[in-house]
Amino acid sequence: MAIQQALMVLGVVPPGYETFESPGDFNFIVPPGQTELSIMSIGAGGGGQRDIGVAGGGGGGLVWCDNVSVSPGEILSVRVGTAGTGESATGIAHTGGESYVRRQTGEYILRSYGGNSGIGNTAFGGIGAYNFGNGSIVQGGNSNTSNSAHSTTGQVYKSSPRAGEFNTVGLTTGDGGGGSGVVPNQTGGSGASGSSGVGGDGGEFGGGGGCSLNPVGYVFYPGSGNDDYIDLKPGAGTNDTKIVFDPPLTNVSVVNIAGDFQSQIGYNLSSGGSPSGGWVNWPNANGTLSGTTLYNGPEKTINNIAFRTSQSGYAKLTTLSVISTASGSSVNAQLEYKLDGTGNLQTTFGQTKLPTLVRQSTTTGNDVSIGTGERGGDGGDGGVAIAWGDPYLIGGGFPLIDGKRSTFFRGNTTNDYFDYTPGTSNNFMMGTGNFTIEFWFKSSASSQVPFAVFVEGYEASPLLSQVWAIQADSSGNKLVWIESGSIKFTTTVNAIDQGVWVHHAFVKNNNSNSVTYFKNGISRGTYTTSLNDTDTTTVRVGNWSNVTNYNIHGYMSNLSILKGVARYNNNFTVPVQPLSEITGTVLLDHNSSLLNSAYWGPGNSTGTVVQNDAPVASTDNPFS
After folding, report:
1. Strand 332-339 and strand 315-325: pairing?
2. Do residues 197 and 373 touch, judged by C-beta distance below 8 A?
3. What is the residue range of 596's domain?
4. Same-domain check for residues 62 and 208
5. Which of 211, 251, 382, 587 fits 81 for a cystine, CB–CB 3.0-4.6 Å?
6. How many C-beta atoms lie closer than 10 Å to residue 346's C-beta?
7. pLDDT of 377-401, one tens digit each?
8. DSSP codes of every residue in 485-498
9. What is the pLDDT of residues 126-136, one digit of tens each?
10. Residue 379: closest CA among 187, 212, 177, 186
């Protein structure tokens, strides 16, 4: 101790670290003699929900950076995010709090956002940002139907905190997700198990809270897809059950329902205990799922679909569809509700709010709650670690790039495009491995010219075009994925939005042998691929290699191509800062005012950029 104190008097401090493990605001004073720090922060986990087929909370975002320049004696402000609380009968679920470290000037060194509490059956993990040094951003786990990021076990230091468990069955209580270690080289806390209708709390630090027991109660019986059903009878007791629409469905002319019901069904159940049109018997209650028309007549408003669960016998619901004809119009709009594979009744058209299951007392006619204190689990609190000295370098980070720029392509009145040839041979040949192609685009036109080419991999000599490509479709509104000159799939939604920045990502994942398109982080199309790219020598951006007049019109920012890396395997939160050169990068461009240069990835030789015509460098970007 005497030696250490003497060293401090001399302005020499041994390597060490300080952790902040309780929610709140703190100060950190840079030790004497230290001019660089390594910092890691974890956002707090989101709270779990309390409803039918819902998500747990998302895990907190994890961000770190090494080589952060500081001055001895400098005071840094530290905040540790507070756990998001779980949903209860008297309060909604809350997003986890943000953790950060910033200078006294208010300039953030890094920020880690808390995990989301989610809406319905998805809760996204938090992300974050860093502004100094060599760093990395790891999104917290998502809680959703696939739930691949869930793990109750604590995560090792520098690993993404996990989400709370998704409620896959109506009578299941979810576990909390495991947190990440905040102490260098240690494992974080495990998530707690859910029990007695209360979701498990997330582990320290940043784990998401588990979902709670559904207070209404029902049991989901998965089949092979089309024969999934939920039995509404369990937990009903002497109460009837309603699927309540909020807002009500208007101008309804037809109601179709599929399932199998030993008890009676109806629609617009009133407080008097009788549905409009009375209770009706299921026409074929023999244990086989089938369908029937519950209503077919003049337009009316439907407030609820009713099930007489106060009677004995099962009430198996598979799908519900409604045809609504707007008065004075010949257009029919069909609204369909179906099970999503986890027992959650999802809408596939029209409604912005999902229907809810409600019990109604046969004695009083009032809606009743049969819950017994069910609540979602709380997330885990966030955490911050600040270290100095080589033994505590975190490693694995990448330099920050000031990529708040874009390139403006002027459309078919010009012939703007770029050709890229790598300095490292075969770097653009994707083979059969993973890859990620992502970029932001802001369209200057309501639609692109048909089959406008955004990014194309081709062989330059002899010319072999469209080894793979990302193009507009024939309408100029959607995107298509092309392999070997043929369209393999078209996005399921319009992808090219005028006047707004949209993030696009095409990801090859060998685990599923698929190419998936993500629009703003949401999967919007997938294809089982057989691509084996041994031909691509050049990447073109902005037009087709074989024919002109397929020019894009708008702003492109932060085009990144990763080889051997499937960066996004599930729905994700779009990055909030410019992309960096990370492991797998073979091309990164349209992020600076220099049009004839690019980033080629760590350890790769510099390639060549050939600009055609006169695209324009712009300060317009998706991060401002």
Report:
1. antiparallel
2. yes
3. 402-618
4. yes
5. 382
6. 18
7. 999 999 999 999 999 999 989 888 8
8. TEEEEE-SS----B
9. 999 999 999 99
10. 177
